[in-house]
Amino acid sequence: MNTKFIAILTNQGAAKLANATALGTQLEITQMAVGDGGGTLPTPNPEQTALVAEKRRALLNSLSVDANNSAQIIAEQIIPENEGGWWIREIGLFDKEDTLVAIANCPETYKPQLQEGSGRTQTIRMALIVSSSDAVTLKIDPAVVLATRAYVDDEIQKHAKTRNHPDASLADKGFVQLSNATDSTDDTLAATPKAIKTVNDDVAKRLLRTDMPVGIPLPWPTDTPPAGWLKCNGATFNKTKYPLLAQAYPTLQLPDLRGEFIRGWDDGKGVDSGRNLLSSQAATSIAVALGAFNQYHGIDTDSAEIGVYNPSYAVYKAQTTQTSTGTTYRAVRPRNIAFNYIVRAA
To answer: Domain Phage tail collar, which positions (predicted)?
Structure first.
């Protein structure tokens, strides 16, 4: 015949629970006791006011509502390894007034002591069906109870999954919330790499605009300008695409600096008056005084050198001494190195 293991409220426990439910109060269960049943497995009796043979009584570790059955409560107690030397066959729950409110039998198990060479921590659980689990509560002193490893692991896991943690501050450690904001002054938020990159990129652009404004032409050593730059080749550009460049060049056309030198604008100085900004200027010839020549006739072929163009006179050798002066013109350019002029467009 199969042995039945049951847990029931005692008559006193049922009466107290009914009273708590009616008054809207709670029955405070504080302790659990275990006993050996006097050597045999007892059958719980609601008339009982004590265990058959109590061996140990101590505070409960936990009292919770069964997650799968809201009408069932689960009481748990930990017996440390240094207590034992007896069998466990019966379990009782007591309230704060030491009244036995529930009783149960359980599979027989021996709880050894360390002195016996086999110590273990024993977990005792009682599942009890009540009419209202809201009317039952646990009243314990957390300083004198033990917790199972599973209980601790579960509680830590629950805590880790919650967001009920202190916020970090400039003085204390804690949780922080990530933020992509780049204009916030909140010192409890942590900037993401995206926010930092956005700020760095913005600073780099601002420095570039400050140190090298849009529209400035620069010599570049390759035939392809870098990103954000255009060649100064006289091309037109789109105002919508390059709004800042349009402020520098309202005609929406870039200057053509191919093969050209840049000259400082006169700006009222009087050296090169009558010029407008970005206006072009043709080259001029340079007048050179060549001095006097005596006793020559015919064309002086010695002057036919590279760079001499269109002489305005010729001297002929004569029988009489003659003196003649005149001017001629020579095209002049300085030594130079060719660069590709580019303009910052964005």
So the answer is: 215-262
Which residues, other chains included, contact 211 with Cβ-Cβ below 8 Å and sequence gap of 6+? none
Tokens of 114: 């360390």
pTM above 0.70, yes or no: no
d(CA 213, CA 232): 16
The pLDDT tens digits along the chain (346 residues) read: 466 888 888 999 888 888 887 778 888 888 999 999 999 999 999 999 999 999 999 998 888 888 888 778 888 888 888 889 999 999 999 998 999 999 999 889 999 888 877 778 888 888 888 765 555 554 445 554 556 666 677 778 877 777 677 777 777 777 777 788 878 887 777 788 888 888 777 766 665 556 688 999 999 999 999 999 999 999 999 999 999 999 999 999 999 999 999 988 899 999 988 888 888 888 776 655 555 545 444 444 444 444 444 554 455 444 555 555 555 555 677 889 999 999 999 8
Torsion sign, CA atoms 16, 22, 28, 31? positive
Strand duo 27-35 + 136-138: pairing: parallel
8-state DSSP, 194: H
Q: What are phi and psi of 238, to 5 degrees?
A: -90, 125
- Which single residue is written with the structure tokens 């001029």? 284
What is the C-alpha separation between 251 and 200, in angstroms, rounded?
A: 34
DSSP string across 219-285: EESSSSPPTTEEE-BS-B--TTT-HHHHHH-TTSB--B-TT-------TTSSSSTTPPTT-------
DSSP 8-state secondary structure symbol assigned to residue 162: S
CA distance 46 to 52: 13
Q: H or E segment at 158?
A: helix 149-161
Residue with tokens 């692991």: 153
What single-letter amino acid sits at 312? Answer: S
Contact 85, 113 (CB under 8 A): yes
